[in-house]
Write a sequence for this structure.
């Protein structure tokens, strides 16, 4: 299967912007995308060691072939409605941000898309709901009328953001 | 680094063995009404009274009734000997530096004080603590102050409180299946070569 199956815009639109490749995943009822260059790897759920007294959105740590990395529950981080259920579709997406690896749990990884910058728009507040504007790079309206929320992973896990989050979040 | 591997809430924790004075089975302790919730009570260890901190409470984990496998790990602190109540003590494991990972940056920002390092075990991760860090956020002296009393006062509180010490020997530590014991100082090693290194270093014993 060629990647063109997932094209949302024909490649002729290349003139109107950069082609970008996104890893798409689902959290609750929303579809999200992050730049594939940020993604280190995608894993099935493995045993997560919880860390007492960490903020509730910190799920714990995992041992990734000898490297110990923290795992975040993004639904908690964004205060999204979440069933709390993990099933065989759940994945740990490991991204590299600020030169460190961080994993986050998603309900499912759906596809890898190529889009052009041209279809990315600033996110209207009503679309993004409870997710703070500053974590969102924009939204992409896909051909199938799906809305994809593009996350800015650098900002989600920036030191400043996490510090303020940790003050807000009750410790588990 | 050799670590006491203990369990709380079904998770593995580790504490450098050099911080540990002894490990005792938990057979109840004398509670002090009105004291800090973390203070489980007092145990009498030979002729010394030792305040016991419930690590489940200290770490904000769900509190359960201590079971048969519960142990008190006695550590030396700036405030004297303190017992740490844990669910069970599993064993003593050597962990080389390359299997001890620093706390990831993201976690370090949250000031999870007790957390010193993360150890890689075969199939899981061990949370390595130090007592200094554990009580670093805490007025330990105030928490254990109600436990400071004389043996007489203690005895008047309890009529027939059984002595917490089962055997007089220090180590109730679950030793590894096979161990090599140093004849000079009684330290135990998991391999003969580790024992030889120890003897060479500490007792100037020539080994071949």
């Amino acid at each position: 299967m060629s990647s063109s199956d997932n094209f949302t815009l024909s490649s002729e639109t290349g003139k109107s912007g950069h082609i970008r490749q996104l890893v798409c995943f689902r959290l609750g009822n929303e579809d999200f995308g992050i730049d594939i260059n940020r993604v280190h790897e995608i894993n099935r759920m493995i045993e997560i060691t919880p860390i007492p007294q960490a903020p509730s959105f910190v799920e714990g740590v995992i041992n990734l072939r000898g490297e110990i990395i923290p795992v975040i529950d993004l639904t908690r981080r964004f205060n999204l409605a979440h069933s709390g259920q993990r099933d065989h579709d759940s994945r740990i997406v490991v991204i590299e941000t600020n030169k460190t690896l961080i994993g986050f749990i998603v309900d499912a990884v759906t596809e890898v898309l190529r889009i052009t910058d041209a279809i990315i728009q600033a996110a209207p507040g009503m679309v993004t709901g409870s997710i703070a504007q500053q974590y969102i790079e924009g939204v992409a309206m896909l051909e199938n009328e799906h809305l994809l929320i593009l996350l800015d992973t650098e900002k989600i896990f920036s030191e400043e953001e996490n510090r303020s989050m940790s003050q807000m979040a009750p410790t588990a | 680094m050799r670590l006491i591997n203990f369990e709380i809430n079904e998770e593995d924790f580790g504490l450098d063995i050099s911080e540990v004075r002894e490990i005792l089975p938990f057979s109840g302790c004398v509670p002090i009404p009105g004291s800090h919730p973390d203070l489980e009570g007092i145990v009498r260890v030979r002729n010394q009274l030792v305040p016991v901190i419930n690590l489940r409470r200290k770490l904000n984990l769900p509190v359960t009734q201590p079971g048969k496998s519960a142990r008190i790990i006695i550590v030396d602190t700036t405030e004297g000997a303190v017992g740490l109540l844990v669910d069970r003590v599993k064993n003593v494991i050597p962990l080389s530096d390359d299997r001890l990972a620093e706390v990831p940056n993201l976690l370090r920002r949250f000031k999870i004080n007790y957390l010193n390092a993360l150890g890689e075990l075969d199939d899981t991760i061990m949370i390595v603590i130090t007592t200094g860090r554990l009580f670093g956020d805490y007025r330990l002296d105030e928490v254990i102050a109600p436990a400071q009393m004389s043996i007489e006062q203690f005895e008047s509180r309890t009529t027939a409180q059984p002595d917490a010490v089962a055997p007089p020997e220090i180590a109730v530590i679950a030793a590894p299946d096979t161990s090599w014991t140093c004849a000079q100082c009684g330290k135990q090693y998991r391999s003969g070569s580790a024992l030889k290194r120890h003897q060479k270093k500490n007792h100037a014993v020539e080994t071949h």
